[in-house]
Amino acid sequence: MSQSHGIQTLLEAEKEAAKIVEQARQYRVQKLKDARSQAAKEIEDYKKSKEEEFKAFEAQHAGTTSNAQTLVDKETEVNLKNITESFNKNKEQVVNKLIDRVVLVKPELHRNLSKVEA
What we know:
Elements: H1 2-103, H2 111-117
């Protein structure tokens, strides 16, 4: 009877140990789930803060883009005005030179032709 009592005690101890191991596993699994959810929350918070930081940076520098565009537009207007003035100032001279070249033709033999005859 003492042997069966010892075996019974061992079986009860084994069941108790299995319960303790199962509780430890459940505790570990729960801790992992908690850690994952906490990490996901921290990642989301960090992502939101960086997005806000980027939007603030973008808003701060958006004005410089429009300022740069205004500056380029003014510079383009000045250059266009200079080109127009230069055109108006020199167009008559250019037209006269073109007419002179077209109208005043000096008939001459081609330079290669004169070498053949010589």
